[in-house]
Amino acid sequence: MSHVNAMDIQREVNTLARSWWTREVAVKQWYRMIQLFNDLKQPNMESVISSDPRTGFNMAKWLLTPRTSAFVADTTGMSEDLGRAMGDVESYSDQQLVRMKRKRRTSLWGSPMERLIGMMLATGWYAVSSVPTENGWHTEVWNPMQVYPEYSSDGALIKVGRKYTLTSGEANIQIVLRGWNRPTLPFSGKFVTVFSLWRMTLFGAEHAVAISNHLAKPPTVHPMGHIPIFTAPVGGLPDDGSIVGGEEWKAEIGQSLMAPIKDVQKNYDKMLTFLQQLVRDTANPRWIERVKQAGKLKPERLFQRGAIFSVEPDEDIHPMATPPLPPESQSHLFTLHNQTQRGLFSDISFGNITQQVSGFLMSQVTSSSKQTLNPFHEGVKNVWGEVATKNVELMRRLGITMGGVAFPQTDRDMDLDFMYDVEIPGDFIQRVSAARVANPMFRLATVTLHDVLFPEVQNSLVEQQRIRAEDATNNPVFQQVLLMRELARGAREARDNNDEEMAQWLDRAAGMVEEQSFGPSDPGSAPDLPPGVRPEALPPEVQEVLAGREG
């Protein structure tokens, strides 16, 4: 690609984009469902669109967002010292994820995690760009519909094209910040189109950028063994074109959360619309006029309160009887809704409970929800684990430290996994209850309960110390000790003020409190013997001492 111009980059990116046209068509259909787009509108007729796609999308996004997460290094076969040193790599990776969230939390798209999950649920794809720098990882989550990958026969990423738009001003700024070739004249107008192309060569990853008809960055080989873009399908079918053929398989290799319910949801919306219109027609009967001159009834006056209609003798006005609603309509509506629940989430998971739910049923609902979310859950873990692994590998190769901390010295690969659980509300309590049924002695540590049920508690040990301090303060014995101390202090202050009478009263009150709390205290009384010890079994000299004290 020694004599490449901007038109060559445009042509190659456009070729990649056209190869994914079936995916684009499918994604728009799924996204319209999430938008609650009403395609059943008719003039002067009712139409109803169920909110299930939107509520299901919101529920899935909420459940997939990690509450607690961590990068975990694969230490299998490592020495004990190296395994401990890998803790610094895990902590650094965790810090980068927190840093990304904090940096983008007020942006248009929110945190990278939220954008990744939202795009994945809506499109069935993810697209993340990430490269390490001296100041941390530079990570961006892209719209997968702007990214057009090409894979080898074994599924490895060998080429990626990206096509997106920028304002002219932003394009001029990007060229300066990234050190690209400047155009003869700055870009003008409202928008420009950017064509970015990555490809794997024998010498490494090659990158070129064209902005409109200007070659901003000629093909340049970068010192990395991979394309720094992580894009793959999620939740689709396993075909690679051998089963369906043509390009149709590209619309199904990655699928949105809405894909399983697309046709069922359309029929459900049609049924809701039909019943709405049927109820209107049933509640508004037709009228028959048996009159000599038409026009006795006027639609605008038909339902007026106190309306009076006059007819001649032998004339008549009466409503036409309408048929009742077919009973099968409601049962068919329930059938369609049940199929929708199988594809998304059960009504019980939203809290729509009209009767008591058994623990067994709740566990089935939890399992069903996790099954629905499993492909997307695995996608989130896979992409962040791969981002961390590749960035750490490149940092070691380029000699970049972890914020001043050097990597452990080893020739082994440092593979990292991103770990977190999908937490279904009520699932934890349900499992604890089931465990106690099987083993009444079952219990969990307080630290575990804090981590699972109260993640806002930052330090469980500190919280337990506070509880013990409160228990000690509220103990009646502690309260009596405080009272005696205050009475003794009052007696000393009374004597300091030459008020001996008040001091004696306070001393007597302190003595009464002590006697009520700890029993009578007599310095000359014999000490209590331990349980089971007889006086005659003691040495004679001890018996004499005790007898003397008793006398």
Describe this structure in words.
The chain has helices at 6-18, 21-35, 52-64, 80-104, 112-123, 168-178, 262-283, 299-302, 327-343, 359-398, 427-438, 446-453, 460-474, 476-496, 500-518, 540-550, and strands at 70-73, 125-133, 136-141, 147-151, 157-167, 191-201, 204-211, 214-222, 229-233, 286-290, 316-320, 416-419. The chain is an alpha+beta fold. Helix 10 (359-398) crosses helix 11 and helix 14 packs antiparallel against helix 15 (500-518).
Give the SSE layout.
Blueprint: H1 6-18, H2 21-35, H3 52-64, E1 70-73, H4 80-104, H5 112-123, E2 125-133, E3 136-141, E4 147-151, E5 157-167, H6 168-178, E6 191-201, E7 204-211, E8 214-222, E9 229-233, H7 262-283, E10 286-290, H8 299-302, E11 316-320, H9 327-343, H10 359-398, E12 416-419, H11 427-438, H12 446-453, H13 460-474, H14 476-496, H15 500-518, H16 540-550
Antiparallel strand pairs: 1-12, 2-3, 2-9, 4-5, 5-6, 6-7, 7-8, 10-11
